[in-house]
Amino acid sequence: MPFALLVALSIGLLFLFAPARRAKVAPAGALSLDAPLPVKVPAGVVLRVGDPVNKWIFRHLGWDKRLPFRIEWAEITGGPGVTEAFHAGALDVGYGANVPPIHAKWSGIPVRIVGFGQFPQGAAKALYVIGIAPGAHIRSLRDLKGKRIAFSRSQVQAQVVLQTLKAEGIDQRDVSLVELPSSIGGDVYTSALASDEVDAAPLGAGLVAHHYITKFGDRGASLLPHPRFRDSGLVLFVPESVLADPGKAAALRLYVEYWGKALAWANAHPEELARGYYVGVRGLPIDDARLQVHALGPVSAPESWNDAVDFEQKAIDILGPATGRPKFDAASLFDRRFEAIAAHGMKEEQACTPCRDER
C-alpha cells in the first residue's frame, strides 16, 4: 500500500472510531459567552493544554508554579491532533495554525479563538514553501498546472495550495489535489514527494524544507517560494465548553496573558530556546535548532483582532467552495473578551526582560 494512502487511511480510522461527541447540555452555573470573564480562579482548577514548546518555557521560567491553577501539559499540537483531542474531550486548550478552528466548526465542534499571533506586519518571511518532487519538471509555479499536489483540507497547507493556485491563475480543476494529511515534522509530505506520489506539496519553510533538500536535492528535488501572501496565522483556541466553565474561563484568562509573555520571551531569547527546547528536549543538532527557531519567529500578538478576523475570513472564503463547506462569518470564531490580553502580556514581558536578564 502506498505510504501516503496508508497515512490517510490511518487518520480516517482514528476519527471513525473516536469516542462519541459529548452532548451539548449546559450545566447549571454555566458562564455565558458574553458574560465578563471571571477574575478569581477557584481552588482545584486544572487546565489541559497542548503546547510542548510553551510547556518548556513555562517550566524553564517557573511560571507554572506562579499560577493559581494546575496545568496538565499534553504532547499534542497541530490541527488534526488538537481537533481529535477536543472531539474526545481530552484537551482544554489547543495551539496551531489558523485553519483547524475553521475545520472544527465545519465538523460540528464549537470552538473559539482566544489568542492570535502572526509574523509582524511587513516581515518578509513565510511559514511555508512549495516542495517540488524530483523529476516533476516544475520550474515555476505556473508549471503546477496538470500536476498532483498534496492537499489537507483541515490544515493550513490547503489554504497555501489554494491561494498559490489562485495567484497563478490556475483553476482547481486543472490540477489533481491528492488528499493527504500533513504531519508534525513534515515527513508525510516529504516522503510522498520523494516516492513520486505527488509532484508538489507545501512544506514548512524551516527544518522540513531544509531536510528535504539535504536528502533529495541531488535527485532533483527543489523548493519554490509561494506568491506573496501571509501564511503565518497562529491561534490559541478552545472548545466553547471550556469557556462555559467559570473556573476554567478565569484560568484561561491568566493563561492567555502568560502565553503573550511566552511569545515575547521567545522573541527575545532565540538561542536559549534553541538550546533548551530544540536541543535539550527534541534532541536536534544546534544548527537545526537555530534554523527552526528562526523559521518560526518572531511572532507578535496584535492588540486589535480586526486584521485577524479578515485573515480568517479569507481562509474561510477560499477553503469553503474548494472543499464543499459553507461560508460563515469569521467573527463568530473569535472570543473578543480575550482580544487584548496576550498583547498586554507581551508588553509586560518586554518591559521585564532587561531586569530579568540582569539577575
TrEMBL record:
Residue span(s) of domain SsuA/THI5-like: 81-205
InterPro entries in UniProt: SsuA/THI5
Record-annotated membrane-spanning stretches: none
Pfam families: NMT1 (PF09084)
UniProt-recorded name of the protein: ABC transporter substrate-binding protein
